[in-house]
Structures are given as structure tokens and as C-alpha cells.
Specification:
The protein is α/β, with parallel strands linked by helices. It is built from ten helices and nine strands. Helix 2 crosses helix 3. It holds the Pfam family Abhydrolase_6.
Length: 263
Amino acid sequence: MTPRKPSVVLVHGAWHVPASYAQFVTALEANGYEVLIPHLTSTNGTKPAEGDLYTDTAQVRECIAGLVSAGKTVIALLHSYGGQVGSNALCGLSVESRSKQGLAGGILRLIYICAFLLPENRTLMQQAEAFVVADPNAPQLSFAFDDQGYCTMADGRDRFINCVSDEIVAAAYMATVGPWSVKCMNQPLTHCAWKEVQVIYIHTNKDMTIPMHSQQMMVDRAKQLGLEDLEIISLDTDHSPHLSATKELVAIVNKAASQTCSV
């Protein structure tokens, strides 16, 4: 009997929506995966902004809890801010945790894609400030804030997809990028799932949003705090490998699935 592939749940980044990952989802589905991307409340556009880290957390947990309760195994892909959400949402849902309770299903891997990898009680803004202290010469992000509780990235084309040369592709991608709830910036993690589940961290060497040195800073800190079951993979691309390095990213998922899938 052919082993059943795990389901893939992708937790998208700030300013993004599920449509931002269409090319990647198509490629994953062509490889036989069930793919789900919850549309996070922090980018749903309600005015004034109502979504935040904690409503995003509840949404993602509900999605994955439903899968594992049905006995399915899951690989969680966490992109950028999605790392903050996934870390907060997914404690107690690992295959190992559920097996100890006599339950089938669970999360097999957390794959952080150039994502925030933070401990409990840490906010995105605190980490961003730490990045600047560590490297004052690093390029600074520029945000535009509105009166509805949202912010946008002022130069997203150059920050998110600086390795994409096709301007038609770039324009179509940037058309999916929109406002994100400001609340998320200053809300601390209350849980830390990467302490419970095997982790793959994907570095993006040409990243202009979370540069390599900033990614490495988070990984090093997580190791100091006890992250041991960690695999590091580097891609020579920008902050959006789901668009700029789709084949390579699918190959990483395939490898992780081949190491973990069960009948």
C-alpha cells in the first residue's frame, strides 16, 4: 500500500493572502498534497482592523486541529510572520504528543520559511529593534499606516520579490499584497511550538525583508533556548521562495514528507 502523503498547511506572511501563494499551491497539489491556507484575520481587510496575532492563532489552530483530529498527519509551512502564528498556535498537536495520548495524526514538521522564530513573550517589534541593534547598517523597512489600524509595506516590490525579474509576474504578485493589522507587531507569543516539533528552517540568502544575518540571529537564539531537532536549508533567493524558487521549495517539502509519511 502506498503511504499516504501528509496534508500541507501554509501559514501565510504579513500583507499576504492565500492568492499570493497560488503558483506554489498548484505545484504542491501536482505532487499529490492536500493544501490548506487559512486566510489570516490580520489581512482580511475588515475596517477598522479586528484581526491580530491571537485571532490568527485561533484560526490556524482550528484548521490544523481539525485535520489531526481526523487522524491526518500535517506538515506546517510557516512563511515570515506566519512563523509567529504557527509557533503560537500549534503546541500539543505534534504526532509525538498525540501518540502519547493514544491518538492518531499530528504535526510532523514545522518548516519555517525565512520566518520569525521567536520564544515566548517576544514581539515582532522587539525582534525588529534587536535586528537594528545587531546591524545598524542593515536596510530599514518602511511602513505606511492608515487610520483603520492597518499598515502596508512601502516598497514591497523590492523587499518581497527582488529576485523576480519578470515584471508581469511581479505585478500580478504585488496585486495580491495588501494591508496588515498593526496590532500584530506588538503582541507577544504565549506558546512556542518549535520546542515540541521537529523544525526545518529555510534561509533565503538574498532576502531584503528579513536579511540572512537576522534570520541567523533568531536561529542562534532558539538553539540557545533548547532547539535541538533542527535542519537548516539555504536557498539563494529572496523573501518569497514560493514564487522565486518554487521547484526548490516543493523539493524540500517532498523530502520532509518522504522522511515522515506513514501508511
